[in-house]
Amino acid sequence: RKKVTINTLQALYKKDEPITMLTAHDFPSAHVADHAGMDIILVGDSLAMVALGMEDTSEVVLEEMILHCRSVARATKAAFTIGDLPMGSYEIAPEQALESAIRVVKEGRVQGIKLEGGLEMAPTIERITRAGIPVLGHIGLTPQRQNALGGFRVQGKTTLGALKVLEDAEAVQAAGCFAVVLEAVPAEVASLVTKKLKIPTIGIGAGNGCSGQVLVQVDMSGNFPPGRFLPKFVKQYGDVWGESMKAIQAYKTDVKSRAYPAPEHTYPMPAKEFAEFEN
Ligand code: KIV
Ligand code: NA
């Protein structure tokens, strides 16, 4: 497969072919996403929960993001790779954001960064894109701001709210974003915003009128124990947790019953050599 570049993504957008994007948080999760043919692999700060067991994304720090970006980058041969700027690494000033973005690209070895926020982040997005680092915007529901939003709520459900989503989308486009993630906005709003923009929209909980889709890998592959809450927009395509569980339980049973290891799993020794050893 040919390396996906910013030009490849632009070409898909021009052809109206949906852009596929999936998160990865380490070497194996990136390896499988790349082999499956994802156009973009995102090292989302959702790794705080899915890889580090944290409560929410506000806990993960830049160094941890960089470490995970590097492991993802090592496994990714074709997909375009993006790393999230975590909370606290970019809000203070455009210079701080640029410094963090440079670290994610230089040390994390990914090709672009994503940051949350609309109109108010325009100067920051401009600063980073002027340095030659592709920026993916992220508007609508921005999880790093959950406390200010009053939780994980759909955005743009009212006329005013929808206008705000459109204003943010146009602002991040004007600031230089190559694409923008629309999270948890009504499908009609996301479709209209997509039509009005000249850059691709990547939807998550935003209907099928977007230019592409993104999901968190552990959610869509079912790599979590039964009973965990999943947002309404997630479609679960697999049962990776169940498969791992079955394999590990079978291993346990085999070890307890001495069915494993079988003769084919052991190293042979010439009988004569062993006889001498035994005496
Ligand atoms: O952190 C993440 O996984 C994300 C995607 C859900 C867009 O930001
Ligand atoms: Na994120």
From TrEMBL:
Question: Among its keywords, does the record have Transferase?
Answer: yes
Asked if the record carries the keyword Transferase, the reply is yes
Q: Which superkingdom?
A: Eukaryota
Q: Which GO terms describe its biological process?
A: pantothenate biosynthetic process
A Gene Ontology molecular function term of the record: 3-methyl-2-oxobutanoate hydroxymethyltransferase activity
Q: What is its EC number?
A: 2.1.2.11
Instruction: List the pathway annotation.
Output: Cofactor biosynthesis; (R)-pantothenate biosynthesis; (R)-pantoate from 3-methyl-2-oxobutanoate: step 1/2
Reaction catalyzed: (6R)-5,10-methylene-5,6,7,8-tetrahydrofolate + 3-methyl-2-oxobutanoate + H2O = 2-dehydropantoate + (6S)-5,6,7,8-tetrahydrofolate
Please provide the record's keywords in A-Z order. Answer: Pantothenate biosynthesis, Transferase
Q: What class of enzyme is it?
A: transferase
- Any GO CC annotation of this UniProt entry: mitochondrion
Q: State what this protein does.
A: Catalyzes the reversible reaction in which hydroxymethyl group from 5,10-methylenetetrahydrofolate is transferred onto alpha-ketoisovalerate to form ketopantoate.
Hey, which family's this protein in? Belongs to the PanB family.
What is this protein's name?
3-methyl-2-oxobutanoate hydroxymethyltransferase
Q: Which organism is it from?
A: Letharia columbiana
Whole protein: which stretch is covered? 53 to 331 of 338
